[in-house]
Design goal:
Number of helices: 5
Order of helices and strands: HHHHH
CATH topology: Helix Hairpins
Structural class: mainly alpha
Number of strands: 0
Radius of gyration: 18 Å
Helix content: over 70%
CATH class: Mainly Alpha
Distance between the termini: 11 Å
């Protein structure tokens, strides 16, 4: 593979970042407009299980795409920039559904923004305490998120970086 010119490298990086930003904006917009109605706790757990399964499948697909990309590093940034918000929005939707099913599950009834904020504070491990889980069901979902946060941060990033390394080795790419 030919070395990239500085201009072409900048273009690839800019395009990759814009694609990642656009993907995130679309996902957040969908989170705010898709109907999330009141449902039972069993329904919420089923949606969460299916969502985590789909996320795992998407991650596997992204790893493969990174390995076969002409520019694995850029593809990895795009992958992380789409998979991470999807992970967070999955849990935000779950917390919103739980709150709508029973507002007493949290210290206050959650809006979409509250649910997203709560999800991010858990992911970032800051937990300000202004919103907290009050029921066993909500605490169980929070525990699941915290455990999966560790998997995403540890194993997930390691898998993505391994895919970049394999992709660069097979294509000879600089980026």
């Amino acid at each position: 593979m030919e070395p990239l010119t500085p201009r072409h490298r900048r273009w690839l990086i800019t395009r990759g970042l814009l694609r990642a930003l656009a993907t995130t904006v679309v996902m957040v917009a969908l989170y705010y407009v898709l109907p999330l109605d009141r449902r039972s706790g069993a329904y919420v757990f089923a949606v969460l299980a299916v969502g985590v399964g789909l996320l795992a499948g998407m991650t596997a697909w992204q790893v493969r795409a990174i390995e076969y990309s002409d520019h694995p590093s850029i593809r990895a940034v795009q992958s992380l920039a789409s998979l991470t918000p999807l992970f967070l929005l999955l849990f935000a939707s779950t917390y919103l559904l739980l709150s709508r099913a029973d507002p007493a599950m949290f210290t206050e009834e959650l809006t979409r923004t509250d649910a997203l904020y709560f999800t991010v504070t858990i992911f970032a491990t800051v937990g300000f305490g202004d919103i907290s889980a009050q029921s066993d069901t909500a605490r169980l979902v929070v525990t699941i998120q915290m455990l999966l946060d560790l998997v995403v941060l540890g194993l997930g990033i390691q898998v993505i970086l391994g895919a970049v390394k394999r992709g660069k080795a097979s294509t000879g790419s600089e980026v």
